[in-house]
Amino acid sequence: xxxxxxxxxILRGKQLNSYADQFENVRRTSRQMAQLVAAGYxxxxxxxxxxxVGNLLIQNEAAAxxxxxxxxxxxxxxxxxxxxxxxxxxxxxxxxxxxxTRPVVTLVTQVLVDADDPAFAAPTKPVxxxxxxxxAEQRMRTKGETWTxxxxxGWRKLVCSPQPSxxxxxxxxxxMVDAGAVVVAGGGGGVPVRRRPDGRLQGLEVVVDKDLAAxxxxxxxxxxxxxxLTDVPGVAVDFGKPTQRxxxxxxxxxxxxxxxxxxxxxxxxxxxxxxxYRFVHDGGRQATICALEDALAGLRGDAGxxxxxxxxxxx
Length: 315
Known about the structure:
- By secondary structure, this protein is α/β, with parallel strands linked by helices.
- The chain has helices at 19-38, 50-62, 72-97, 133-143, 170-178, 210-220, 252-261, 269-281, 295-299, and strands at 2-5, 44-47, 104-107, 110-113, 125-131, 146-151, 154-159, 164-167, 182-185, 191-195, 201-203, 225-230, 236-237, 245-246, 249-251, 286-291, 305-308.
- The mean pLDDT is 91.
- Strand 1 (2-5), helix 1 (19-38) and strand 2 (44-47) form a beta-alpha-beta unit.
- The chain has three domains: 1-113 and 166-208 and 216-223, Acetylglutamate kinase-like (Carbamate kinase), CATH 3.40.1160; 123-159, no CATH class; 224-315, Acetylglutamate kinase-like (Carbamate kinase).
- It starts with a strand and ends in a 7-residue tail after the last strand.
- The strands form four sheets. It has an eight-stranded mixed sheet, sandwiched between helices.
């Protein structure tokens, strides 16, 4: 199965982005993942990287007069290595403590996007540091960038967020999983690339949503289950209203109805719900969205929101 680790697996609440904080949270998360391995599951792990890429972009700006800035796709690859290292070490230690011997491997993963994706016509994803209006307007004027005012903190650059259409390293992930390894892949939505007319790959300065990339990863490695771990008990409908309730088990038809009626936030639960729907719709057996600490119960159908095919679905 593919496990998509939300941001709370690496940073919790309003913690500072210190290395020590991140590593300690990854250790806690790894204890949960080790329990899944002990229960007999074969894991491919993926994760977010928003704060880490944000830090690199801030460093780009601060050091622009000293060293050439690093493009966004390279920042994504760097954070795959950074976070993958923390997961590799922590999970291996937790497995050893349980008397289990498993290789844990991080794979820098490229994710294909379609050059004709309509998302390229409308940048929507904020990245990097906040700047005042005059700086944003100067960058829009001189560099052709797209910026928007976020809140009182200022303006941020917007980049495109196309749909994932393939996982370049899917065959390599298959080989490692078949050999018994736990694989960390597709971190941060993967490194976005396009295939040029001559067949060569080219990196792009765009962002692929990490949850949608997890859905694509799960399909291409033949996973039976997609487990999306976050910091809430599941998917809530009528959020913030007196009628708010959490969905427990839903069929594809029921979830499709909710997707039409519910304004799930594009920045938080929306991509998770769509990823769960698309995974089961396109052939997966089960998708679960649940709290990190409920990972094993969620897989068993005892916690979170479980999306199944019509014949097994019930609330």
